[in-house]
Amino acid sequence: MAKITLDNLAHSYLKSPQSEDDFALKELNHDWVDGEAYALLGSSGCGKSTLLNIISGLLHPSQGRILFDGKDVTHAPTAERNIAQVFQFPVVYDTMTVRDNLAFPLRNRGQPESYVAERVQEIARMIGMEDMLKRKAQGLGADQKQKISLGRGMVRKDVNALLFDEPLTVIDPHMKWELRTQLKKLHHDFGHTMIYVTHDQTEALTFADKVVVMYDGRVVQIGTPEELFERPEHTFVGYFIGSPGMNVIPAKVEGNRAYIDGTEMALANGYGPLNGKVELGVRPEFARLSQTEGLPVTVRRVEDVGRHKIIRADFFGHDINIIAGEDDRVSADMNRVHFDPSHVNVYANDWRVTPKVRTETVGAA
């Protein structure tokens, strides 16, 4: 296990990058705690796989250093970093049996056969392949081969870190849940530092202690699932986390009041002068449809998704979403929306603004 330090790290696939826009991975300075489970979350092309490959040694950064427990491993080959990596598509030895595939990393390090047999049996049970240990990998399906890759990555207890690059892409949904559960158990039992790359927020939020959200080659927030939900530090985090994501509404903010298309709304906090693009961020869970309270809204449709209703509405020319309980009444005369002031975030140029003053009494919007 290792503490992983990213020191002034950046990478460009261009030979002579001229500006920040030329970098696939923009400058990073972070410490990832020894023994924690992290998920790198973001849309395709945001830089998460680039970062993972730099950590593993498959890619050398254009600038900066990477350290394991304070030791500079920037130019160390993958084999010297003592990590295990599982890729998006299965990498197995087709001519070997499932047992020999799982045993390979242990035998390669000269472990006693008694230990190899015990550990292989344990991992095979974990990935649901005990009855296939004698079968050749060549005749297995993609999902079964990926389970072998996962098992081979998990079979060693002494690694500095376990790296997973979208490993469940080819796994069926039921098995995805089981394997995520097993990965969390493995982390709990052995305390490996784990880094899990995914574009799926459910995978990230259910797997990780901390989620590292990436956007346009940059880490925009590292936090617990609760922190990402309650206080998105960037509008992308608010949009990407949640279903539906956070409502982002252009506004003018003066002190503890917000103005949307000239209509005034109270805020729970006060703010200093703001420049550039100013917006309010409100989760659909903290918006409520009303007959009498709030600002005018036009309901376009109501979607019943079983556990709750999603109300799609027009709000001063902007699309917003409101979540109502399954048993909550929604009628044609409900044409106002009330935002819970304590859950309204303010953003300037996409970044969350820290409030200056807490307002003790907030009137209804």
Name a few traits of the molecule.
365 residues; alpha+beta; Rossmann fold; OB fold (Dihydrolipoamide Acetyltransferase, E2P); 9 helices
Q: Please describe the biggest sheet, giving its number of strands, its sense, and whether it closes into a barrel.
A: 6 strands, mixed
The first-level CATH class of the largest domain is given as Alpha Beta
Number of strands: 23
Unreliable stretches covering 5 or more consecutive residues: 360-365
Domains, number: 2
Distance between the first and last residues' Cα: 51 Å
Q: Give the strand line-up of the largest sheet.
A: 6-7-8-3-9-10
Quaternary organisation of the protein chains: single chain
Helix and strand content put the structural class at alpha+beta
Q: Determine the CATH topology of the largest domain.
A: Rossmann fold
Helicity range: 10-25%
Mean pLDDT: 90
Strand content: 25-35%
Query: What does the radius of gyration come to?
Result: 24 Å
Number of helices: 9
The fourth-level CATH homologous superfamily of the largest domain is P-loop containing nucleotide triphosphate hydrolases
